[in-house]
Amino acid sequence: MRDPLPAFPGYSLRRAANATAGELASRLSDIGLKQVDASILILVGENRDVTASALGRQLDIQRANMVPLLKRLEDEGWIFREPLDGKSQGLALTESGEAKTREARDIIEAFEAELLERIPPEHRDHLLPALNALWR
Amino acid sequence: MRDPLPAFPGYSLRRAANATAGELASRLSDIGLKQVDASILILVGENRDVTASALGRQLDIQRANMVPLLKRLEDEGWIFREPLDGKSQGLALTESGEAKTREARDIIEAFEAELLERIPPEHRDHLLPALNALWR
DNA sequence: TATGCATTGCTATAGACAACAACAATCGCT
DNA sequence: AGCGATTGTTGTTGTCTATAGCAATGCATA
Lengths: 136, 136
Hints:
Two copies of one chain form a homodimer. The first copy, chain A, is mainly alpha-helical. In chain A, strands 1-3-2 form a three-stranded antiparallel sheet. The first copy, chain A, is elongated and about 60 Å long. Chain A has a single domain, classed as Arc Repressor Mutant, subunit A. Chain A has helices at residues 9-29, 35-46, 52-59, 63-75, 95-118, 121-124, 127-135, and strands at residues 50-51, 79-83, 89-93. The interface between A and B is large, with 54 and 54 residues. The structure holds a DNA duplex.
């Protein structure tokens, strides 16, 4: 079939993102995580007492939609909340959450390394800066 | 906030794809199209009498989910179906569909050009080959 | 030519996700 | 003390995708 679409960077971007996201999702599901879960765990691990709102801003997830996500991570015993004042609550990893986060990091880092290996060496180092120019 | 995530190509890939897809979606909505619609119109335009199944395979959309998509394009008067045999039906653009497709192409091509311009020149030409190495 | 398997188009359903509006409580600034 | 902004939350909606199933047809081959 004639298909001019892959010549469009925007289209290839979407397809590549879908394909790789699918792969990563499959690997993370082995340890019971979705990609969002892993992102949240990593951010909470690096930023003790971050608030749900701040997390949402960083990840471009609306406040309202953070609720079920955090509830699940809390129910699993990976994060807990501690009141910062009468209104805000800080998030932090439990011990089991820290272990889970390390697992997730291992999976992700292995995956990222594989991704880069698929790219011909002459293009490899340009991907990240090019991508970051598109959204940051 | 400390955020190690943008250092992961896979994460940046997803974020860049979301950001750019959102922008393109907004522009395409000006002419009443979603991105899938535009993809389908372009493919049908390049491949007269392509079947719904073949389209789905090319775009990674399941047969069942093509139905409402194509129904809408047909209801809008942009595509029509002609029986190829007793079972398969070929898709083709109407005249108004061809006009709509040209509009979509103009928007997409302008958008893609802008995307590339955002990327520092030394990285620009590496994006497409790097992306295509990830999913094709 | 007849049989069996694959394919096509479609219906119906369920789950995941994101957007949106609204609300009470609280914070922080003036 | 008052007021606008922020936080966490509920509830709802629409969109998208996966899945299973079905009747009809095509295709290959025995």
